[in-house]
Amino acid sequence: MQHKVEIEKNVWDPLNIFHVTSDYKYAVIILNSPIRLKNNLMFQLWENAQVTITVDGGTHRWLNYLDNEGIDIFNGNYNKYVPNLITGDMDSSSKCTIEKLQDIGSKVIMTPDQMFTDYTKALMELNIHAKEENINLNAVYVIVENFGRFDHLLGNINTLYKSGKIIPNVQIIQIASDSLTWLLKSGFHKIRIPSILLQGNNWCGLLPIGAPANHISTTGLKWNLDNGLMQFGGLVSTSNTYDKCPEVTVSTDVSLIWTMGIEPLMDTENC
């Protein structure tokens, strides 16, 4: 129950990603982006998830990742790597492959509505599935790299802004090979900073995308704000870092994007 209490208080702990515990319930979503997580982390996240989803071309990304590890899920020996759900408009996936996955246990949900991105629709379907299966999720880990088409990157950020209405009271964290990104809604937040990130001036940033933040205060950063203003065309907090404090606090009047580098966490097993 500890994690549920923390989430209600807007406490964010990146180490939940690396040190999976039985009382922390999460889903994994793989988008159509190269998977560059190390296999020990990727497999840990997948194997301990309550729900696993591949999204359209993300299905092939997952199969290719498995193939590079010498895993063929169609031979009957690796059922744990078969996605629970496959969603999307399927314009980036092979019909034959999707049907083969359906035959070995995946639930395939076509989501052709072009008014929403496949990422957004995947969260919608996850919310329905979690309710049907009575799964109380603490978090959703979205595997996606932060490069490629700029409109796709902004579409992913837009989905983060929508996520609270799609799947309420669940932390949505985008995981890349070198960073974590999530949305801080208006209010007060605490972010626990792993000690290894305090040792090397690792980067972090706060971005007021879509609307100015007129009243933002922070602690724990090298360059803090005290009831300050952030907006595009003015001040934004990029290339910031930590002041050696194990906790960052953010008080904001609007939603902000928080992003942080995690390369040292990726390079060590003792994180």
TrEMBL record:
User: Is the Ribosomal protein keyword given for this protein?
Assistant: no
Q: Where is the signal peptide?
A: none
Q: Thiamin pyrophosphokinase thiamin-binding domain: from which residue to which, for each copy?
A: 187-256
Q: Superkingdom of this entry's organism? A: Eukaryota
InterPro entries to which the protein is assigned, alphabetical:
Thi_PPkinase, Thiamin_PyroPKinase_B1-bd, TPK_B1-bd_sf, TPK_catalytic, TPK_catalytic_sf
Q: Which UniProt keywords apply?
A: ATP-binding, Kinase, Nucleotide-binding, Transferase
**Stored Gene3D superfamilies:** Thiamin pyrophosphokinase, catalytic domain, Thiamin pyrophosphokinase, thiamin-binding domain
Protein name per its UniProtKB record: Thiamin pyrophosphokinase 1
Q: Which organism is it from?
A: Polistes dominula (European paper wasp)
Q: Which gene encodes it?
A: LOC107066444
